[in-house]
Design goal:
The structure is a homodimer of 411-residue chains. The first copy, chain A, has 11 helices and 16 strands. With 411 residues, chain A is of the alpha+beta class. Chain A has a 7-stranded mixed β-sheet, sandwiched between helices. Chain A has a 5-stranded mixed β-sheet with strand order 3-10-8-7-6, sandwiched between helices. In chain A, strands 1-2-4-5 form a 4-stranded mixed β-sheet, with helices on both faces.
């Protein structure tokens, strides 16, 4: 199940000049499905990335952090095996993979960013990796440019328990010139990113200083990939990387008057990609936006939003369309906000006032609550009445299918 | 489903001199089931209690905190309605209930401790409360003593989604005299106590200073009710209260050489009652003990244990008996322990070494992992190799039935 938006159409995904994509089937875990993606970038490209804060972070994440400093010009992504919890051998395998790709593309191994996603505690099947890389680079070398359809294949090649590929584009005018942005993401479970999602990639043909790109990513990540949760489990492999190829010939800095246009388009794209992960959350039947306002700090607004977004009781009530809304109050109550005055809080469901003055609103009726809960897109609005900060978190409900999917994931 | 131990036998539950129990059917939510418990204590009784830290705590919890200072001599417990998220009206209703019981028993209203459990955001049905209190007190006045069987009825009267009553006793020798302790508890969902469980009650015929009882409770709670989790949801109504009636004629202080015997029996009893809640956790099919050792502090040991105990991915893997044990490493990794060296960590499952040196142990086999996961009682052992502190947390798995129970709870 899912609350996916319609499948992205290949034609809606804009090619990005200055890069070449190649998705292949390497048979890493299952055969006859795209499970490896190689992206090669032109020499003017700058890149920035944010990665999981999980202490048990995967070998490819360790390498990505190092390689980002070496002006990387290629991405290597595999699914089926996360290369996490694999110790020294895992780091060796990830580096070896970078080396194979670098050799084919005439790069240094440090110029390759590796990404893996899939089962933890298992080693990369290195023969399959080598053959897959060979297959992808042969195709790359024969390929003249990039086709829009290839972004859709790229999105397909990075899926694991996702039920559909996640991709989106934006086209904007900057200084009278047309600039394109295209991104893909993946993930449906083990989603509570703490820097980035499982995997997210964005590319643009704009030219950007690496430092400017990194700063923009940090801001956009906080408002997108770092504001979603499916099950509260922060992955070992979360990675979100952006590339600015500069192939459009246009360069931009935060001092340019057009910067806000680009920034907004970038954040919008990241939010669409992040929300796509929640919409495809394992077993999801509802897409839930939790908006907390009038908090003393954005930190406490997020604390309240995540307490609600992680509560299995709240999430099962959404699944059942049951307005058992005391569970939301309970979650607010244990969210850990110091000195919280519960009598000041207002709780709304798609605008319907549910609770105020520490209890049920006089105007609230069970019937109206049921109607609001029956929607497939629900906004939970909380007014703490104690400050001027706010936060938004996106999540989904908790269904039988979540249990089924995760009880059977490896089998 | 559950991993309950055999039902407590009425004969195994020791009567406690100095108190009278009365469980009645007040028809608060459903008819023809015990849903109200009244306990009256003799004048030498001392009491202590710990309560939820949830900011949205229920009206009865607010009153309990106040009334504990007034030498209370009665408990009034109802199920079916939590009287939480009920604002000013809720506090009035709780106080009114105390007043009715106090009048019948010749006490002041402040000498009654009220407890409610059930649905949040609904008001107490006051007519039914009044009729139930009348029924209970009439019976109390006609009742000569207490029968062991009545503790089982008391345990039944406080159940909500529990599949079986939870009660236990201990008999110990102190200074050559026989002392009895009996306790009951309830709860199966919204269980991640932060001071106490949904409801827990312990009584002894020993005489104790109130301050000594309170200090002992704090210690025992940390090792029992505060070390369990079903779904990570801290309730609005958690209450754990103890009474020492003194009816045995024997008084004890922490300076007595026999104190450790009493303390151990008390902690044991609390642990049995707390574990009974996890064993009966909503939808539980496995009873899981998470033991973290060699941590730098007991705080960080608990952090790691709870990260594992709250992970829906870990809990669904236990449900499936699937040794997808990388999920445990991922949870350790995001538990937030600063400067964690993952290469030093050892992970064991019922003694079987699973992971070490940041990866899978060479000796580990999938077959052995599967066998360990197939047990209904599993100990997850984690050695952080960075200090001398430890913590134990008890939890259960996450099954389809958890979703069913919580999607349908109110209907």
């Amino acid at each position: 199940m899912s609350v996916n938006l319609p499948l992205p159409r290949a034609d809606d995904l804009l090619p990005i000049a200055g890069l070449q994509l190649r998705a292949v089937s390497a048979g890493i875990r299952k055969s006859n499905r795209l499970d490896m993606l190689v992206v090669q970038f032109g020499p003017t490209t700058t890149m920035a990335g944010v990665f999981t804060q999980n202490a048990f972070c995967a070998a490819p994440v360790l390498l990505c952090r190092q390689h980002l400093a070496s002006a990387p010009l290629a991405w290597l992504v595999n699914t089926g095996c996360a290369n996490a919890g694999t110790g020294e051998q895992g780091r060796f395998d990830a580096l070896q993979s970078c080396q194979w790709l670098a050799e084919s593309l005439g790069l240094q191994p440090e110029q390759v960013l590796p990404f893996s996603t899939g089962v933890i505690l298992e080693h990369l099947p290195m023969q399959k990796m080598q053959a897959g890389i060979q297959k992808a680079t042969q195709a790359l070398q024969g390929q003249a440019g990039t086709a829009g359809s290839t972004w859709l294949e790229a999105a397909q090649a990075i899926m694991t328990t996702d039920t559909q590929p996640k991709a989106a584009s934006r086209r904007i005018q900057l200084k009278g010139q047309t600039i394109s942005l295209t991104g893909i993401s993946k993930g449906a479970g083990m989603i509570r990113p703490n820097m980035a999602t499982m995997l997210g990639f964005v590319a643009t043909d704009l030219g950007l200083e690496q430092a400017h790109l990194q700063a923009l990513m940090a801001k956009a990540t906080d408002l997108s990939f770092n504001a979603i949760t499916v099950d509260g489990d922060t992955s070992t492999n979360d990675s979100f990387v952006c590339a600015a190829t500069g192939a459009s010939g246009l360069r931009l800095t935060p001092q340019d008057t057009d910067w806000p246009v680009f920034e907004q388009a970038f954040i919008d794209l990241c939010q669409e990609l992040a929300q796509a992960i929640v919409r495809d959350g394992e077993g999801a039947t509802k897409f839930i936006t939790i908006h907390v306002q009038c908090a003393k700090s954005s930190h406490e607004a997020r604390q309240v939003a995540y307490a609600i977004g992680h509560s299995p009781l709240v999430k099962t009530a959404f699944f059942a369309s049951d307005p058992n809304l005391g569970r939301i109050l309970a979650a607010i109550g244990y969210s850990g906000v110091p000195g919280l005055d519960v009598s000041a809080i207002e709780l709304r469901l798609n605008g319907l006032l549910v609770a105020q003055a520490g209890g049920r609103a006089a105007s609230y009726t069970e019937e109206a609550g049921k109607a609001a809960m029956a929607e497939s897109e629900i906004t939970v609005g909380i007014d703490l009445h104690r400050g001027s900060h706010q936060a938004t978190v996106w999540t989904c409900d908790f269904s039988h299918d979540y249990v089924s999917i995760n009880a059977d994931y490896r089998s």
